[in-house]
Amino acid sequence: MRYLDEYRDPALARTLLAELCATATRPWTLMEVCGGQTHTLVRQGIDELLPAGMRMVHGPGCPVCVTPLQAIDRAIAIAARPGVIFTSFGDMLRVPGSERDLLGVKASGGDVRVVYSPLDAVRLAVAEPGRPVVFFAVGFETTAPANAMAVLEAARLGLDNFSMLVSHVLVPPAMTAILESEHNEVQGFLAAGHVCAVMGWRAYEPLAAKYRTPIVVTGFEPLDLLEGILLAVRQLETSRCEVENQYARAVLRDGNTAAQHAMAEVFAVATRYWRGIGSIPDSGLVLAERYAAFDAERRFDVDGLDAAEDPRCIAGAILRGSAVPTECGAYGTACTPRHPLGAPMVSTEGTCAAFHLAGRSR
């Protein structure tokens, strides 16, 4: 398949690995900020094939995983309301809240439905005018344009029974928080190609310059990642700190401007709490005041809910890149994909799930 098979060529992979080994003269620490990239790195064993001393730190690249427990509990509280139709992508249904998950609400009689697009939720609101329909809007900049379009369509149709529970986060502020941490060991980043396909990479240029850190926009196939790592190491070896675009087949410097305009119309930038990291200024999106009528938090008055993490789960350390799943005492025993303690073991982009699916043991 074009743009797929050629990025899984084993001969080219061996060539890139050989060049990487010849280029690296000292240990380097890189971080990928994308759960999809994490799964490829771990599933293909790329992280174990790197030159001696070089390591990949798995960052907060899973949008499901960084969604705070409070947001999950708010979703559960809304979904349990009589008459509410609560809609979400499937990967959120098994993320544990303080006491149960959305599947538990469904099992107890709540009307929780999986949708494949936020516009499905809008169409559902049209078909069920007598019932409130809520969509759980989670993700990085990648999913924000489609969610913005859903709000614009609901406004165009004059729907008063549609609302959105928003928990969007933005990648550049999280990278800034990592770089400014006193415990930071990251010397270069692989930036998420799908986020940059929407936003471009202009926002990364000041980060590379200010923190003297190479950033390589990278795709998701094995050769994408090997080439992205090689480009980052070449920069480090020659003391360059630039933004490079490995994912040229999908990403432009300015990104998708139409998608950006829709986001700017519907959302406003705000401080957001990241699971495992904490509160980061200007790192999230909320509905702009002119679309406040579609804000599920306001409509259902759930913004005061507090939550407590399971003390056995070290998801915070994993999301910060300061620990790996196999260092967790619950990994593979009390915490498995069937019975997860935390989001990183649930999501298809979670680091714990990646390690477990790859058979990594403690």
UniProtKB/TrEMBL annotation:
Record-linked Pfam families: HypD
GO molecular function, one term: carbon monoxide binding
InterPro entries (alphabetical): Hyd_form_HypD, HypD_1, HypD_2_sf
Gene Ontology biological process terms in this record: protein maturation
Keywords (A to Z) from UniProt: Iron, Metal-binding
Superkingdom assignment: Bacteria
Family in the record: Belongs to the HypD family.
Database matches in NCBIfam families: hypD
PANTHER family (alphabetical): HYDROGENASE MATURATION FACTOR HYPD, HYDROGENASE PROTEIN ASSEMBLY PROTEIN HYPD
Protein name in the entry: Hydrogenase expression/formation protein HypD
Lineage: Bacteria, Bacillati, Actinomycetota, Actinomycetes, Glycomycetales
